[in-house]
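User: Hi! Is it possible to get a structure for several chains at once, not just one? Here's what I have:
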Amino acid sequence: MFRKVLIANRGEIALRVINACKEMGIRTVAVYSTADRNSLHVRFADEAICIGPPRSAESYLNVPAVISAAEIADVDAIHPGYGLLSENANFAEVCRASNIKFIGPPPEVTRMMGEKSTARQTMKKAKVPILPGSDGVIGSVDEALEWAKSVGYPVILKAVAGGGGRGMRICRSPQELPDLYNQASTEALNAFGNGDLYMEKFIERPRHIEFQVLADEHGNVLSLNERECSIQRRHQKLIEEAPSLKITQQQREEMGKVIRKSLKDIGYWNAGTIEFLMDEDGKIYFIEMNTRIQVEHPVTEMITGIDLVKAQLRIAGGEKLTDIIPQPIVINGHAIECRINAEHPEKFTPSAGKITAFNLPGGNGVRVDTAQYAEGVVPPYYDSLIGKLIVHGKDREEAMNKMQRALDQFIVQGIHTTIPLHKKIFEDEEFRAGNFDTKFMERFFEREKAKAE
Amino acid sequence: MFRKVLIANRGEIALRVINACKEMGIRTVAVYSTADRNSLHVRFADEAICIGPPRSAESYLNVPAVISAAEIADVDAIHPGYGLLSENANFAEVCRASNIKFIGPPPEVTRMMGEKSTARQTMKKAKVPILPGSDGVIGSVDEALEWAKSVGYPVILKAVAGGGGRGMRICRSPQELPDLYNQASTEALNAFGNGDLYMEKFIERPRHIEFQVLADEHGNVLSLNERECSIQRRHQKLIEEAPSLKITQQQREEMGKVIRKSLKDIGYWNAGTIEFLMDEDGKIYFIEMNTRIQVEHPVTEMITGIDLVKAQLRIAGGEKLTDIIPQPIVINGHAIECRINAEHPEKFTPSAGKITAFNLPGGNGVRVDTAQYAEGVVPPYYDSLIGKLIVHGKDREEAMNKMQRALDQFIVQGIHTTIPLHKKIFEDEEFRAGNFDTKFMERFFEREKAKAE
Amino acid sequence: MEANELKDLRELVEFLKDNKIAEFDLERGDLKVRIKFTGPPVPAAIDYTQLATLIPQQTIAPAPLAAAAAAPVSTPAAEAQAPAENVHEVKSPIVGTFYESSAPGAAAFVKVGDQVEVGQVLCIVEAMKLMNEIESDVAGEVIRRIVNNGQPVEYGQPLFAVKPR
Amino acid sequence: MEANELKDLRELVEFLKDNKIAEFDLERGDLKVRIKFTGPPVPAAIDYTQLATLIPQQTIAPAPLAAAAAAPVSTPAAEAQAPAENVHEVKSPIVGTFYESSAPGAAAFVKVGDQVEVGQVLCIVEAMKLMNEIESDVAGEVIRRIVNNGQPVEYGQPLFAVKPR
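Assistant: Yes, the chains can be modeled jointly so their relative placement is included. Here is the combined structure:
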């Protein structure tokens, strides 16, 4: 196992990785910008090196600074956390060239999965279900009608040269298709000087489902089953849970097989997440792969009992999955995570500043991952996540009740947080019934607005 | 289920019960002394009633005040926590007379188990192994030699009228018995005016092992297996863990059977703990039964996944164990608890006062049960426990490592706590090897003293 | 400055602190004094990280008690009012239910305007079916009855305001 | 000022500090006293709930860095010393290893006592095999080299003390 690991990140995930290392007897090196001098990841690492001024580009994203720190501290490996340099293939390559183990997949795979169309083609080849698309220009209304018939309505027409919603039309029946096709093509021509269109299957009310995977460097792959992450605002996840109410045991097992085969084909290793959209019929379609640990990894940890960050470290250390993970993987109860962001709970404006009171909930089945503390400061330079509140109950009902009592006891003063928003979501009937999709928050805000009037 | 429950306690256990009630949709009523006006159990209960001045005798132990509060708040039931009124059979009787459900065993059983000799006889009758004793006066040296031979050396001679160690002798061989017998008898005669002696088997290096039980009001009893609580200072437990390294699966199952039968015979219900001493050969002997929830209940919760306080509430609500507890009970990993006391870590003098900084550890597998907070005050009137740090790992090694990193992150300033002591214990080789007994702390302090010199 | 002036100043500052005064100016004849205390109003010590004081304290005040009572009751805010100068509050020594008279329909032990003596019974607080007579711990005029007949009261809750004589 | 006046003043100031007074004016006849304490609420106000400042900060200071270096190094305490008045510290703009000369055995770019100009190379900080020349951002006399040859330095770590002219 590694003797010493540098954590190229900040905030709760840096502390999460430090904790895993400490519990494994690995020495830890934190890096930090001058804005984070008093942060807990600096406080609790064995060593800490200042790598630059507050702006991420000059510190946490500064590859030479991070690598220099790693060389000076003489570490064996670097854990990138999530965000920042975690999916930067160049950084992984520099690590390799510097003879420092990058704790993540090989740079070639990261690069391949970072290109959306390459990833799509790769997954398609590996028999992972992907969202049906025309994979090329649809030249005429007739061709469009035929393609739509083959995948079923609704479909979406998109400009090949497009972006920002222009040249885009959602089409729900063959009757309206010809007009919409012509409108979209004209709009695209006017906007981009190119009227070419392509088509995709459209999901009215998709759920966001993702599968956690672990793969060792010896070709073994494991699916740790799904997480449900449909509660999002502008594509930012707010609440995640596991398991999903909508994934059947059969689907879980089938996906496990598909994922094992596809990632073995690709040559993937370490932790990763494959993201899917689920349509109203419960069918799921690949959208993208994240080649790193995710913010919401704790919900999987709670129901499987597997420490994913420790698994990452052991995989990078060359161990085999069979030695790391007791199998078969059993799902135990239900876990939910709320992201606690330093944001105004209604306007979502970031809220940096000094925390004046900080009370963490505790007790049975409650986990808090945070690097904040009473009298800590939330600097304005980085993302707004200041903590994660995770609960584990014997079923979804118990987990929701636990979350409500824990949210009541999570007190942050001095800055705004999303805690009041979470409290309202956990009182929402649609949320509690579990019948939601990625459009949930839009409907929720409308309901809240209606209530307020 | 109950509509409203009064919690007749304070501190972390009051908050623990409040949390369980909240998660079950039960309304909570806290009671408090004027010294606890700003406590979190008051803050987080739905209602709170001041029942008297700081001294426990005039508030938390004041039966009329507690019952009045219960009547005024119109509760269905009272949860007594641990300590205070929890093993007061009179209180349970007043509850019954007032038509308020007491969440605990019937007062008759509490009373029976509170009398040491009755409890011993009861358990003996129910075939629970008890520490061999002469059960009466040993009238002569010859009788003493005969009895000692029947149970094996060492034995202990005790004055029937005794106390405080006078008239007490540990005897390790038949050669030394006659002299010791005469010395003890003379000493007893001089001290108490009565030279009568009785004898017990003596265990040189006992471990303290206890079994957690749950019983419903329909005659069903379950053993939730053992906890290891040998790390004690002057009979105060400091560290508890589960499972015990020294209990074999066979012993666990045998004890389960014996316990089920004996508690059914007694007519026990609700949660309870049966305490044993284990001798050097791994044989265990009943010493006493606690007829309440224990401080260290979380370690059992962590490895069984069963919420003991919720189980107490449901049992008191009349439910059957088979509906409450998924069976069979499986032991999952290893859990350890450190009691964080407001005490000087070497002198053990209580340390009341204002907390000026308070940082709780979090992350995977870490649970904190506390009612303290930054800027909170530890009043001088009550016991010194201010929090419990519980960790859960896949094995004892992981749990110990997790405890070490969590202790490093548990920061309390303004008062003294036992955190520094715990840190040292977790570095101790004897503790880490698990080869300890209830005399561990004496040896530990000697080693520490030797190190310091 | 002379010794006794420093002594005077000491006294002045103590007085200002006791009265939570932040700034003080004095001009008289040729004497001018100006004192300004540091930052967060000096002696007051607003302990604003005290969670319990930060948060709406519906649970700490007797609000739930009040809510539990059938009779319309005074608001906790009113109950929590600081006693005005020269008014003594007789407080409940136990948890229970407040009664102004010895039996339903009987005359109240005391009414506003009455002169009461030390040891005179003011009311009853019932706890566990026991009627506990609450005696005045001061001699003076009853100027306000703070709780309503039949209302639950907690330990230390003010029952009567009495102007001592 | 006379000796006993200074003594009086000392007493007055002690007194004001003890009482956390920020400003004090006194005028009498021809005597005018005005005292105003500097910045952060006078002497007390240690922000003692700041965890990061509370705890032995071995990890925040460059101690581990220093420990990692083979060469004997100055203690972090010394490095952390506040610069004396009129001394400018040239700080490392990057993380890396400090070298006083362009090659082993070559003469140091500068030595104590040298006059340096703005833009003059003072040393090299090596990061990822790249030799980064560090230029002076002030003109003046080099009065101290703060780090040792071959020592790792972090961002913002003082390298030289220069007395500007």
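The interface with chain C takes residues 29-30, 34, 37-40, 42-53, 59, 64-65, 67-69, 71-74, 98, 373-376 of chain B (CB under 8 Å). The mean pLDDT of chain B is 94.

User: Great, thank you!
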